[in-house]
Amino acid sequence: MKTQINPAYCKGCNICIYICPKKVYVKSDNLSEQGYFVPIVSAPENCFNHGRTGKMSCELCVLSCPEQAITWISEE
């Protein structure tokens, strides 16, 4: 599994950047259509859940996102 940020929901609060213990996200210089700097998933391979198919071991970014803009997608 890997994380994906939906730019339509993200308000650029950057909580995911600060909360992630594995530094999966970085700040972006590109504005979304809503005018926010949406973080980038720069190192998905560093995520605790990378390559997992069973129960997730870390969901801090998903649980901390106030806009529910972060989701899990299959790596296939």
Descriptive report:
With 76 residues, the protein is of the alpha+beta class. The chain has one domain: 2-Layer Sandwich (Alpha-Beta Plaits), CATH 3.30.70. Helix content is 13%, strand content 16%. It has two helices and four strands, in the order E-H-E-E-H-E. The strands form two sheets. The chain has a two-stranded antiparallel ribbon. Strands 2-3 form a two-stranded antiparallel sheet. The longest helix is centred in the N-terminal third of the chain and has 5 residues. The N and C termini lie close together (9 Å). The mean pLDDT is 92.
Gap between N and C termini, in Å?
9 Å
Instruction: Give the SSE string.
Output: EHEEHE
Largest sheet: 2 strands, antiparallel
Tell me the count of domains: 1
Average pLDDT, rounded to a whole number, is 92
Spatially, the strands of the biggest sheet line up as: 1-4
> Whole-number radius of gyration?
12 Å
Q: What class would the helix/strand composition place it in?
A: alpha+beta
CATH architecture, by name, is 2-Layer Sandwich
Tell me roughly what share of residues is in helical segments.
10-25%
**Beta-strand percentage range:** 15-25%
CATH class: Alpha Beta
